[in-house]
Please model this.
Amino acid sequence: MKFCSLCGHALTRRVPPGDRLERDVCDHCGQIEYQNPKVVVGCVPEWEGRIVMCRRAIQPRLGYWTFPAGFLELDETMAEGAARETFEESGVRVEIDRLLAVMDVPEIGQVHVVYGGRACSADPHPTDETSEVALMAEADIPWDEIAFPSIYHGLKYFFADRARGQWSVHTRRLTSRWKRAGAKLSD
Amino acid sequence: MKFCSLCGHALTRRVPPGDRLERDVCDHCGQIEYQNPKVVVGCVPEWEGRIVMCRRAIQPRLGYWTFPAGFLELDETMAEGAARETFEESGVRVEIDRLLAVMDVPEIGQVHVVYGGRACSADPHPTDETSEVALMAEADIPWDEIAFPSIYHGLKYFFADRARGQWSVHTRRLTSRWKRAGAKLSD
Model:
């Protein structure tokens, strides 16, 4: 940030009184522009044993596969946001059943929260963000073409819990090691 | 927001192409200023069966009791943030053990994430944000003087799980009904 959102004057980078971190501070009106992590919400939507998966039509990771996920908006709960993203990205209406995973991605300033849900309609179709929507059994999941580590681990948690017949809430700290040559999404 | 953070020009409120929500958009440089919910992280720190509780020295809810909690910062995990807030607000070092609760507070654009932890040092002391720090047994908790609903419910979850000898992750949607005359923090 370079300019104050309240008065438009140039911002200064410094530690405000009583704080311990550098912030963007406006010396004209006193505004402190805090930057905090954002919440990404996603859903693993199940339909008769299969999962709604979307092929990304946008960057980053264009062409890779994901379950529906996106930034949490104001005025919605995380479960509502996960259901909204599912409809926006796949055309599928979903009932959210349970919290599945809470993952930290501090290197990109994000928290990823994944829910499990039941698809209420099986009318998947491509959208602005999705070039292809598919209903996949576990054996169909293209593990080497998954978009992001939180999608990879969210799917692994889902299938592992389902196989043992008991749902739980998983936590994990993700890194960007997977971006290095030769590294895997699971790293 | 009134002015563009990148170029300082006045912002316009409208729905950008391909979006469905109104945003603050800069018609000069094209910047879209997204506003998203913030994450508050907290910790119920246990020390020999008692809980580290802090009396707030700042608004809002000055004088009311809370366990340590505050806004998640960039470059930290939620567990790291919860431990940092515990030290900043009470002077107590804590080892985070488990995720305890994930709560939505959409009316104020927040997500509250609470962890359970073990205090490693019992040297609690007042800080800039805390006028008094106390080690409280369950019977000592001042239920009518708790600062916020997420603190109330976080404590209830902690004591209920501890009593039955099994930890779990709790989810809840909180409202601002408690602010109405005669309403309770549990509402």
